[in-house]
Specification:
There is one protein chain. Helix content is 41%, strand content 14%. It is α/β, with parallel strands linked by helices. Strand 5, helix 8 (202-210) and strand 6 (214-221) form a beta-alpha-beta unit.
Length: 469
């Protein structure tokens, strides 16, 4: 059923921007461009599309091309149509789920999801956890803060990093993002402002908007954080909460040093602004420098972490570290969303934390993949520039011209799924930037960059074509 509003042909033309008109694959390019706007949330489910004639006039394209593009979108499950009711955006789960591309049998390379298969040692940890699960059957299986054994091991990791922590300061969650959402819902309400970096993690921006709060972005430059900008934002916007990524920042890969953390802590403490620091990537440290201590800024610092990048996203186990008083408030607020994290997955992570070998091998693999991707970028797209990260999962590449969204559309038709720079911005922009994750084997990374270079060449060539009038 169509439950959304209607978008005009002119407005849709503005959203789509430049797409590859007049080529033999014009329908593919147009369908890919519309798909990207759906994935970016600019065309919500239920949005009524303009009639074919109106869209053809707005885009300066033939009705045949428009019809062929809509056919592809219907096959992919992104558009539904009914005689007399027109066409509208629908959920891919209600129809086909294949992305739009010129060759349906192409093996897609996903550069949107920056995650890797399970780390070595996962099977052994699962077997050990299965044997210990029997001991948990006598209990209810519920636990607002999580298993004591797991909290003890996570607390010890913070202590070993230089931040003394007790198990009573740890609460287990269903991932780091879940931990952030819990803190966001407790601290910020509709209309409140939340300080974020620009760029930042897209799902955090979505969570802020879902809470009807307003993201307040402060730009990161290529060298690091703008402390003067942060101070000005704290003074002028008076945000209720800050959300920051200080270790192998998503997407830039930057890491704040100890001096910067002390300066940031002083600014937040002076402004009395609570902060959630996302440490999801902190353990993917390639060991090229001495690691800074965990961030701390009084009783209103909340550190959140996750097993997703270090071990496997399928575990869905994360945690938060906070003062005991704040954690008590967060525990009480949690009952409105869930009643605790699954016991078996907690046991698996607890086993993984005993043995340093799985994490060591994960770091070694990811470091090799980083080197492979960097080499592939230099070979296939030598005009792109990037900062070589000391950890994390991605390169943040500067493009030779503002073309990130057009590049994502063109790459999709070649079987590479990219997240354009605008996904990482609070209010759009960042068209000169693209995030490339190195979470796949070296041969796949090289093949991805080969395809992306072809897509980039087509986009830049298209920009130099003078339209026929």
């Amino acid at each position: 059923m169509n439950i959304g509003g209607r978008i005009s042909g002119q407005r849709l033309a503005v959203l789509l921007g430049s797409w590859r008109r007049g080529s033999r694959q014009g329908a593919v390019a147009l369908a890919s461009a519309i798909e990207l706007q759906v994935l970016d949330g600019h065309l919500p489910i239920g949005t009524q599309l303009p009639a074919e004639r109106e869209l053809a006039d707005a885009l300066g394209a033939s009705r045949t091309l428009i019809g062929a593009a809509l056919d592809r979108l219907r096959e992919a499950g992104l558009v539904a149509s009914r005689r007399g009711a027109g066409s509208w955006i629908t959920s891919p789960s209600s129809g086909g789920s294949a992305p739009i591309r010129s060759t349906p049998d192409t093996d897609d390379i996903d550069f949107v999801c920056a995650s890797a298969p399970a780390a070595p040692g996962m099977t052994a940890a699962v077997d050990a956890a299965r044997r210990k699960l029997v001991d948990e059957f006598a209990g209810t299986g519920y636990g607002e803060r999580g298993l004591v054994t797991l909290r003890e091991r996570i607390a010890q990791r913070y202590t070993d990093r230089g931040l003394p922590t007790s198990p009573t300061q740890i609460m287990i969650t269903n991932g780091a993002h879940h931990a952030f959402v819990l803190a966001l819902r407790m601290i910020a309400g509709p209309g409140d402002r939340v300080l974020v970096e620009q760029p930042t993690y897209p799902n955090a921006l979505e969570a802020i908007r879902a809470a009807h709060a307003l993201p307040v972005p402060v730009a990161l430059d290529r060298d690091g954080w703008d402390f003067e900008g942060i101070e000005a934002a704290l003074r002028q916007a008076a945000p209720r909460l800050a959300y920051l990524i200080l270790d192998f920042h998503n997407p830039t890969g930057l890491r704040m040093d100890d001096e910067g953390r002390q300066r940031l802590a002083a600014l937040l403490t002076k402004a009395r602004t609570p902060v959630v620091v996302d440490e999801t990537l902190v353990e993917l440290d390639f060991g090229n420098a001495v690691a800074p201590r965990p961030f701390a800024a009084g009783d209103w610092s909340i550190l959140v972490g996750s097993s997703s990048k270090s071990y496997w996203g399928g575990l869905r186990i994360g945690w938060m570290r906070a003062s005991e008083d704040l954690l008590s408030r967060l525990s009480s607020a949690r009952y409105g969303s869930d009643l605790g994290s699954p016991v078996f997955e907690q046991l698996v992570l607890s086993e993984l934390l005993i043995d340093p070998e799985p994490l060591r091998r994960r770091r070694e693999t990811v470091r090799t993949q980083r080197d492979a991707l960097a080499a592939a970028v230099r070979e296939h797209c030598p005009e792109w520039t990037f900062r070589f990260p000391d950890g994390g999962f991605w390169l943040w590449c500067k493009l030779p011209e503002p073309m990130s969204t057009r590049l994502a559309v063109a790459a999709a038709s070649r079987g590479v799924l990219l997240a354009p720079g605008s996904r990482f911005a609070a209010n759009g922009g960042l068209e000169r930037w693209i995030r490339l994750p190195f979470s796949q084997p070296p041969d796949r990374l090289d093949e991805a960059m080969r395809r992306i270079s072809l897509a980039a060449a087509s986009v830049r060539g298209e920009a130099n074509v003078v339209p026929v009038t």
